[in-house]
Amino acid sequence: MRHKSLAEFGLPVELAQPHAPVVLFDKVCLAFDEKVILRDVTFEVRAGHTKIFLGASGAGKSTVLKLMLGLLKPDSGTIWVLGHRVDQMDEVQLMGVRHHMGMVFQEGALFDSFTVGENVGYKLYEETTQPLHEVRQRVEEVLGFVGLSEHIDKQPSELSGGQRRRVAIARAMAAKPTLLLYDEPTTGLDPITSLTIDAEIIKLRDLEAVTSVIVTHQLRDAFYVSTHQASRGPDGEPLISAAAEAKVSQADFVMLKDGSIHFEGSADDLRASTDPYLQTFLS
Fold first, then answer.
1. DSSP characters for 185-231?
2. φ and ψ at 225, to 5 degrees?
């Protein structure tokens, strides 16, 4: 597979220094006219960890993802993603960083006129010079990872809602991203189907070493992702089990309220909090 090199985008070849955060927000502020969206937001995401953003509608959760992608620029503060300060980049430079990121949108956002395989391989077809047979091989590999190999030549309209969401995850992982962003990945799905999506997020994090940033208002799914881990069974198949304490500590929750971070901590910290706002949200 050949992506354009970072040097071709005017960027250093190394994405980040060892042990540096994959994402770093430092006192980020953003407002649209008189409406404050984010106010002095500071946090970091470490490699292989999970950051889960919660909050009421309009709290600024999805805005955080757009800032990471460089789709929005902050009014003040700094944003580092994969070792690069994206708030100062132009669109061409941002493309170099986005090559190493994946995004799973609300509702999946698949191309209806493409087959499942064409959807999954879209980024590879468009942005690399990889031979078509190698793209097809990678598409088959990632569809196998999410359990949808037999649907490669179907249209998205032939799939269930949960299957389409899993195709979206396969598409996001096809180019082997370092960082995956999820915007309400289980919205509109029933609880059982949502668990299959949660399992894919866990598998990617633990078996593919992908750093995860998740925006959701589904507490059940957020707690499941943070308290479970994936491993390979004796037959090589993925297994989902309750996470060890060390793994649980690698998932942080961030509660946004009125554009500011109201809470940041582990699943246990969130459950144990007596803060009235958090209690209302958790009830």
1. TTTT--HHHHHHHHHHHHHHHHHS--EEEEE-S-HHHHHHHHHEEEE
2. -60, -40
Name the amino acid, one letter, at 40: D
199: left (phi over 0), alpha (psi -120 to 50) or beta: alpha
| Residues 14-43 pLDDT 10s | 455 556 799 999 999 999 988 999 999 999
CA-CA distances (angstroms) from residue 113 to 142, 153, 157, 269? Answer: 20, 12, 9, 46
Average pLDDT over the chain reads 88
- Distances in Å between the Cα of 203 and the Cα atoms of 8, 12, 58, 192, 238 are 32, 30, 30, 17, 7
Lookup: tokens for 188: 């509109």
> Once rounded to an integer, what is the mean pLDDT over residues 73-102?
93
Token pair 């208002």: residue: 217
Give the pair of three-digit tokens for residue 23.
């994402």
Read off the pLDDT of residues 136-153 as tens digits, 9 standing for 90 and up.
899 998 898 888 899 999
